[in-house]
TrEMBL record:
<protein>
    <submittedName>
        <fullName>Competence protein ComEC</fullName>
    </submittedName>
</protein>
<feature type="domain" description="DUF4131">
    <location>
        <begin position="65"/>
        <end position="221"/>
    </location>
</feature>
<dbReference type="GO" id="GO:0005886">
    <property type="term" value="C:plasma membrane"/>
</dbReference>
<feature type="transmembrane region" description="Helical">
    <location>
        <begin position="457"/>
        <end position="483"/>
    </location>
</feature>
<feature type="transmembrane region" description="Helical">
    <location>
        <begin position="547"/>
        <end position="565"/>
    </location>
</feature>
<dbReference type="Pfam" id="PF13567">
    <property type="entry name" value="DUF4131"/>
</dbReference>
<feature type="domain" description="ComEC/Rec2-related protein">
    <location>
        <begin position="263"/>
        <end position="543"/>
    </location>
</feature>
<dbReference type="InterPro" id="IPR025405">
    <property type="entry name" value="DUF4131"/>
</dbReference>
<feature type="transmembrane region" description="Helical">
    <location>
        <begin position="316"/>
        <end position="338"/>
    </location>
</feature>
<dbReference type="InterPro" id="IPR052159">
    <property type="entry name" value="Competence_DNA_uptake"/>
</dbReference>
<feature type="transmembrane region" description="Helical">
    <location>
        <begin position="285"/>
        <end position="304"/>
    </location>
</feature>
<feature type="transmembrane region" description="Helical">
    <location>
        <begin position="523"/>
        <end position="540"/>
    </location>
</feature>
<feature type="transmembrane region" description="Helical">
    <location>
        <begin position="492"/>
        <end position="511"/>
    </location>
</feature>
<dbReference type="Pfam" id="PF03772">
    <property type="entry name" value="Competence"/>
</dbReference>
<feature type="transmembrane region" description="Helical">
    <location>
        <begin position="43"/>
        <end position="60"/>
    </location>
</feature>
<keyword id="KW-1133">Transmembrane helix</keyword>
<feature type="transmembrane region" description="Helical">
    <location>
        <begin position="66"/>
        <end position="84"/>
    </location>
</feature>
Length: 719
């Protein structure tokens, strides 16, 4: 009846919006209570939101998506202000949504602006060109028997200024090839290469933000047109002089590592020593970063405070912590410039400045807010650093250290007490090991994501290596350099050599132990995002609520453990292929051990067994031109046809073979008559999509192109 009582169905329909409003209200009240009751530092979360905006820009594909994401963040901030204006019961929630949304949008705007300002389009195709160029940077790499020059030149075809990087063999090197010199040369150039496989290192992206349009090598002789004169960089000259001096005073591998510590020059370190340091979890010691800069600043601060304290007139009139902080800052900046002012070093120096400021003002020097300020400064200047391993590893380690040492159990464990010197030393030793273990746990997801391998005994090796480098090797190098000014440094260089021999022996011993290295296949973005979210929540929150961070971290570990291994990996040029059989054995098409393509195939397949040639696969039937491979899964048997060379094949025979195959792989352009049952990976396909990972069980194909979007550094071939 029109005026009768409504039935139950009508009542539900009418009440639904009000019920939804009630649910939203209760959710808002719960969020407000949580934010109000929680004891945490809000500052670091602003930097997290800023970094999230940068990361989402890399993740999204094109300008429309970037614009929509930024617009949505701004609208969220405006909505929070409009809806909760004047409501004291939503003050914390309004502030959180507004500030985090604005920080997110600002992060996207920062990296987008940086990409537009500095990004350099790559040359269209490989070519041999004649260059009249000015040297911008010289990097010596004696271990590779070459010198690497960064040149400012002009693209003869497009008529635009470009920056290129070329390798010069040592026999063609001249002392006059230094920053500011003008040269003429012929070089074989190629566009900066995209990742060779999904999940591999993206040099094209790094080159884009460095402004590099091409890389290559010198062909023929180099003509010096104009010497550097006053254009030469005095810092670069000092760096090379210091590196040469150290290597002249200390021979062999210890000399190359001492040169890296003193000047940041890693070009002389052999690949064998680099690999051993990496597999032992000690490679961070070779890169001038937080540990080295902190050691220099700490030494300068300590010496300045003690020496000025010996001058009563000065000590009574000037605040010594302020003077010591100024001396430490000067030492840190000088060391950063002397070691080449690379981004990791600059980042570490920036991170140390707030700590010195806190010491000068008598504030707590190690806090998450200080780390957040340093990270925000670095990301504002170099937003692209967020997706690189150096930034992630540095700040992950620092955040882990601060979170550990600020926790109540650790504070209680390290609190001063009446005890013997032996017990005090024992507690500090245990704390050093626990700190190393926590750092390894924090760094392992990052290392596995970028390098697909991790040294499992790094915590044990670092307990010995970090004190050895920080308190023995680096001070001895500094003393030896000072005494060299009066010709008395030889005994200390001998001690430096002994300490660095111990470091190398420790690295090689650790790396050679059974199970020292764990390889895993490529970790997806979702997995690493869960690890990061869980780790940040554990580190930045306080109280029992921080334990919620264990949930995403545990979920990420579980998903990683059950992640499938790709069955077939095809490199970006089709020149090499990896096949994983049912038992996890790896077979490759070609390539000697240690080659770039083969190394990436091994790492991305997560194989710890030495791969064999694909002809040794029990399901392979090979002729001079092709291999037909049978690969079984739980559902079916796949037939894979792989080209072994570029010899011309009768098209009808090829078409017939393709028709009998599920997948065809070739490093040539195959005719359209070649139509396999599922997938054709030929030169045409690879130029559009890049390297390929194939998962037969799920019938899934992952390509490099699928993670690139329309960013400027990705240049697929057009149909």
């Amino acid at each position: 009846m029109p005026f009768g009582e409504p039935d139950g169905i009508a009542d539900v329909a009418v009440q639904r919006p009000w019920r939804m409003r009630a649910v939203l209200s209760r959710t808002g009240e719960a969020a407000e209570r949580f934010l109000t009751a929680s004891s945490f530092d809000r500052g670091p979360w602003i930097t997290v939101a800023f970094a999230a905006g940068i990361g989402v820009w890399f993740l999204l594909d094109n300008r429309w998506q970037w614009s929509v994401a930024m617009g949505a963040a701004v609208l969220a901030a405006l909505a929070a202000i409009a809806v909760w204006r004047g409501r004291d019961d939503r003050a914390a929630l309004r502030l959180a949504v507004t500030v985090l949304s604005v920080a997110f949008a600002l992060g996207m705007a920062t990296v987008w602006s940086k990409s537009e300002l500095v990004g350099a389009a790559a040359i269209e195709r490989p070519a041999v060109v004649s260059l009249d160029a000015r040297i911008l940077e010289r990097e010596e790499q004696p271990a590779e028997e070459r010198v690497r020059l960064t040149l400012a030149a002009r693209d003869a075809e497009a008529g635009r200024p470009i920056k290129v990087r070329v390798n010069v063999p040592l026999e063609k090197d001249m002392g006059e090839l230094e920053e500011g010199a003008r040269v003429r040369l012929k070089a074989q150039l190629m566009p900066p290469p995209a990742p060779i496989l999904p999940g591999a290192y993206d040099f094209a992206r790094a080159a884009w933000f460095k402004g590099l349009a091409a890389t290559g090598s010198v062909v023929g002789e180099i003509e010096l047109v104009e010497q550097a004169g006053n254009r030469n960089s005095p810092i670069a000259q000092a760096q090379r002089f210091l590196s040469d001096h150290v290597r002249s005073r200390l021979d062999g591998a210890p000399g190359t590592i001492a040169a890296a510590f003193a000047s940041g020059d890693r070009g002389g370190i052999s690949a064998v020593d680099e690999d051993a340091m990496r597999d032992a979890g000690l490679t961070h010691l070779l890169s001038i970063s937080g540990l080295h800069v902190s050691a220099v600043i700490a030494a300068a601060y300590f010496l300045a405070s003690k020496l000025f304290a010996l001058w009563p007139w000065f000590a009574l009139r000037v605040r010594l912590p302020l003077v010591a902080a100024a001396v430490g800052a000067g030492a840190g900046i000088a060391y950063t410039l002397l070691t080449g002012a690379e981004v990791p070093t600059v980042r570490s120096c920036i991170g140390a400045m707030p700590v010195l400021g806190a010491l000068a003002l008598g504030r707590e020097p190690l806090s998450m807010r200080m780390v957040a300020v340093a990270a925000a400064a670095v990301l504002f200047a170099w937003p692209e650093a967020l997706v690189g391993p150096s930034f992630q590893m540095s700040f992950a380690a620092v955040i882990a250290i601060i979170a550990l040492h600020n926790s109540e159990p650790i504070r209680a464990f390290l609190a001063p007490r009446e005890e013997s010197r032996a017990r005090w030393l024992a507690r500090r030793t245990v704390m050093l090991f626990v700190t190393g273990l926590v750092i390894e746990i924090a760094l392992t997801p990052v290392v596995l994501f970028h390098f697909h391998r991790a040294g499992l005994y790094g915590a044990f090796a670092n307990v010995l290596a970090i004190p050895l480098v920080t308190f023995v090797s680096m001070p001895l190098i500094a003393i030896a350099l000072l005494l060299d000014m009066v010709g008395a440094g030889a005994p200390f260089w001998w001690l430096v050599g002994v300490s660095l021999d111990l470091l190398l022996d420790l690295a090689h011993f650790t790396a050679s132990q059974p199970g020292a290295v764990k390889l895993v296949p490529h970790m997806g973005l979702g997995i690493i995002a869960l690890f990061v979210a869980g780790g940040l929540w554990l580190a930045l929150w306080r109280g029992k609520a921080r334990l919620w961070g264990l949930i995403p971290a545990a979920l990420a570990a579980l998903v990683l453990a059950v992640s499938p291994v790709p069955d077939i990996l095809v490199t970006r040029d089709g020149g090499n292929l990896g096949l994983v059989d049912e038992r996890g054995n790896l077979f490759v098409l070609r390539g000697a051990p240690g080659t770039y393509a083969r190394t990436n195939i091994v790492e991305l397949a997560g194989s710890e067994i030495e791969p064999r040639n694909i002809r040794a696969y029990e399901g392979a039937n090979c002729s001079a031109d092709f291999c037909t491979i049978g690969r079984k899964t739980s559902e079916r048997e796949w037939i894979v046809l792989v080209a072994l060379n570029k010899q011309r094949i009768d098209e009808r025979q090829l078409a017939a073979a393709c028709e009998l195959s599920d997948i065809v792989v070739a490093d040539r352009w195959l005719p359209r008559s070649c139509m396999p049952r599922w997938l054709k990976v030929d030169r045409r396909y690879l130029e559009r999509n890049g390297g390929v990972s194939i998962y037969l069980e799920d019938e899934q194909v992952r390509t490099v192109a699928s993670s690139q979007g329309d960013h400027g550094w990705w240049q697929p071939a057009q149909d």
